[in-house]
Amino acid sequence: LVKRGLRLGPGVYLNDGFFLDPAHCHLISIEEGAVLGPRVTVLAHDASSLMVIGMTRVQAVRIGRRAFVGAGSILLPGSEVGDTSILGAGSVLKDRVPPG
After folding, report:
1. Cα(88)–Cα(100) distance, rounded to whole angstroms?
2. How far apart (Å, rounded) are the C-alpha atoms in residues 21 and 51?
3. Can you give the pTM of this predicted structure?
């Protein structure tokens, strides 16, 4: 995925079962020292809206420096976990968690 544009900082730890949107990995940025718990899903596109509004949502996703994303969380297009923030296990994020 890095060869296809995924931005992966040094010291990132990805636990077992993670899924990073392969079709739009160039829109995903996981910064230095970030940790993803088991079974985390990161989506930079969402086609579920296609039948309702006639378009697919495609937006960047950023996981900040030393941020932690808890087990089983789902990050939707346009979401951001700020530097040194924690996203609790099982969360569905569609917006922004501020730094700290």
Report:
1. 14
2. 20
3. 0.92
